[in-house]
Amino acid sequence: MAQITLDKTDLKILQVLQSNGRLTNVELSERVALSPSPCLRRLKQLEDAGIIRQYAALLSPQEIKLGLQAFIRVSIDKSGELRDRFAQTVQTWPEVLSCFALTGETDYLLHTFFPDMNAFSHFVLDTLLSHPGVQDAKSSFVLKELKNTTALPLGHLQTTA
C-alpha cells in the first residue's frame, strides 16, 4: 500500500464519506469543494493506500430480528496452537461481528448479535464452549445503546498551517 500525506481536502473527503459512503463522485466533490476529476483521483489514492478499506451497508439489527446484543469475554488455553485455531475458527462464526485480543483477565472480547436467548444459549453452549481452546466465557448483554458509530476520529490528523 502506498503511503500518502493527508491534507485538509483528504480529511474532508474521509469525514464526508464516513457519514455517507453512497455519495456519487459528483456529490462528494461538491461537498468537499473540489471538481469531480481531482476528487476521484484523491479518492482512488485513499483507497489504494488502504486508508479507505471498504464500503458497506449498515443494517439495523432490530429490523432484521437481531435484538439480543452481547459482549462475550473469552479465556483461552495458552497454547499457541489452540490460540491460533481459535483465531481461525472465530472468523467462521457469523454471530460474531468483532473479536478483539485483549490484555488483562480475559483473552478475547467478542461482539455478537442473536435473534433471542435461545440462539445465544445455543451459540455459547454448542459452539463457543465446545471449541477445544476455550476455557471460560462470560457474557454481558446490552441493555441500551448510548452511542454507536463507525466514524473514526480524524482531528489528530489535521495540520495547523
Automatic annotation (TrEMBL):
Gene3D superfamilies: 3.30.70.920, Winged helix-like DNA-binding domain superfamily/Winged helix DNA-binding domain. One of its GO terms (biological process) is response to amino acid. It holds the Pfam family HTH_24. Keywords: DNA-binding, Transcription, Transcription regulation. It comes from Neisseria elongata subsp. glycolytica ATCC 29315. One of its GO terms (cellular component) is cytosol. GO terms for molecular function: sequence-specific DNA binding. Residues 6-69 form the HTH asnC-type domain. This is ArsR family transcriptional regulator.
